[in-house]
Every structure is written in structure tokens, then in C-alpha cells.
TrEMBL record:
<dbReference type="InterPro" id="IPR007235">
    <property type="entry name" value="Glyco_trans_28_C"/>
</dbReference>
<dbReference type="GO" id="GO:0050511">
    <property type="term" value="F:undecaprenyldiphospho-muramoylpentapeptide beta-N-acetylglucosaminyltransferase activity"/>
</dbReference>
<dbReference type="Pfam" id="PF04101">
    <property type="entry name" value="Glyco_tran_28_C"/>
</dbReference>
<protein>
    <submittedName>
        <fullName>UDP-N-acetylglucosamine:N-acetylmuramyl-(Pentapeptide) pyrophosphoryl-undecaprenol N-acetylglucosamine transferase</fullName>
        <ecNumber>2.4.1.227</ecNumber>
    </submittedName>
</protein>
<keyword id="KW-0808">Transferase</keyword>
<keyword id="KW-0328">Glycosyltransferase</keyword>
<feature type="domain" description="Glycosyl transferase family 28 C-terminal">
    <location>
        <begin position="3"/>
        <end position="79"/>
    </location>
</feature>
Amino acid sequence: MSEIAAAGLPAIFVPFQHKDRQQYWNALPLENAGAAKIFEQPQFTVEAVADTLAGWSREALLTMAERARAVSIPDATERVASEVSRVART
């Protein structure tokens, strides 16, 4: 998910249906930001995807790309490393 956000790409996600729904929860912030669409596996059909894609104009895709970049955290690795170092020192 983070790579898609950092690259500023609109996306369609079809999360694996697992009891903890980890993939769904990871994709949800991008959908909530208007940068992606989530299809649960039962709703993932050719018709549903075709309808979704047909409804996305060039302008809509550019807006989705901007929204994806807006939720990206490009320095996430550095933030985590800094926090780990900070905690290790205490």
C-alpha cells in the first residue's frame, strides 16, 4: 500500500479474505482518501471492475493520484528507525 501511495497511483484492491482482514484494513485508508477502490472478493466481477473503470475519467484518476501522494509517508522508514533508536536508549 505504501508503495502505491508514494508513487501516486490510483488503485483497485481485492483483499484476501482472511479472518483478520489485514489486507482490507491496510487498503482502507487509501479508499477513504479517495485514492483507491476496494472490492471484496464476492463483489469482484468483470462487470464491477469494468463499471468502476468506465466511471474514472482522466481528471478523476489525476485527483486519485494526488490523494494517494497526500497520504504517503515517504520517510516512514526513517521515522520507525528513529523511534526504535529512541526507545532503545531509554
